[in-house]
Amino acid sequence: MKRRFNRRFLISVCVMTLVIMVAGTPAGCSSKKETVEVVGYPQSFVELAEKVKPSVVNISTTKTVRMPGNPFRHFFGPGRDEQFGDFFGRFFGDVPDRELKQKSLGSGFIIDKDGYIVTNNHVVEGADEIKVKLSDGREFKAKVIGRDRKTDIALIKISSTFENLQALPLGDSDSVLVGQWVLAVGNPFGLGNTVTQGIISATGRVIGAGPYDNFLQTDAPINPGNSGGPLINLKGEAIGICTAIVAGGQGIGFAIPINMAKSMVPQLKEKGKFVRGWIGVSIQTITPEIAQGLGVKETTGALVADVVPDGPAAAAGVTRGDIIISFNGKDIKNISDLSRLVAETPVGKTVSVKVMRSGKEVELRLTVAEMAEDKIIARKGTAEKDLGIVVDEITPRLRSQYGLRDRKGVVIVEVVSGSAADMAGLQPGDVVKEVNRKAIGNIGDYEKAAAKIQKGKPVLLLIKRGDQTMYVTIEVS
Q: Whole-model pTM?
């Protein structure tokens, strides 16, 4: 009897174990992480794919690009290699510039029934025409309502008559956990209505795309054309915007957290841009060497390297050498955390800021101001506006941000969309070494050279990009 009882007992235990493994956590039993959606491997993603399909759109754009008829005409002129200038002039003749139509593809998703669509800024930037195609085959023209280059988020709207649009619910990217199942939906390589599956590989990734990096990393395949499409959780909610991949990598893609987009959409609708908060400090990463010099054990937080006079931080009592460890109730692990939180804070809001000062924690009250371009970069003159670039001194922070080795010259920190510099292919991180054959060592040299630029005449720039040096000609209209 004893042996028979033990056998029945073991069989019962095995059956119960199998049931638990198949069914996952029973109803009424909560795990440590309440946000976990499904325990176990989903049998199929069919219903989920069908559910989100009508909300995801394909975006095609057309952009006009001007190509010079004689690519050498601006390199040679009076007093400069006239022999070669005449040679190329005879070879090319008076060939006029040509305008070419450049087409590109991307993705997006409908966020409300009024026809508003979220996508990546780089999908629609500089586009002359935008067309949106729904999963049911309907096509509409669209226009840009607002965009933000620094986060690569854009809001567009269908401008034609429309009906029966299905909006995609927006989830909570702050609750996303590593290991959760996700789907990427989009238009890779022009293959519309494509669904790929994977998991969240990491959160809070900083990949050097901009000052507000906070990407979700996923191994769901993301390819050219997926940009702007949604990253979906198992509830059918968008938790991210697919935006980038690692070239040559496999299973390494990145998505902008949807909470970032949710905070920006109202302003993009109303103002066409996103107004960021500003507190008036220069910050830097705390390295082990700096921590040792400051006499602190931790390398977390953001070290205040400078405070803008009369700025919000100065008024609150923040001083150089303070380590900001908390902002508005949220811990600061690194400088990216602080930059992102400050930018997302509404202008005029008063928040609590905790700093470590001489080994002691100090709490301050600070009112966030509006970030303006002249507060980011004080030197933005009319010459720079004509060229379409904003430059700054090569500081340690910018050297780190762009991976620069140069100490002489000025670094381009912004390129105005559709400007002459944009058309010439200049990029943030490029170092300007010469302007019209005049050597540039610092911002003062650049301002003197820029002041001599004349409208209607080409400007010859010597640019250092990585390990390559090249001349670029810009026509100032």
A: 0.63
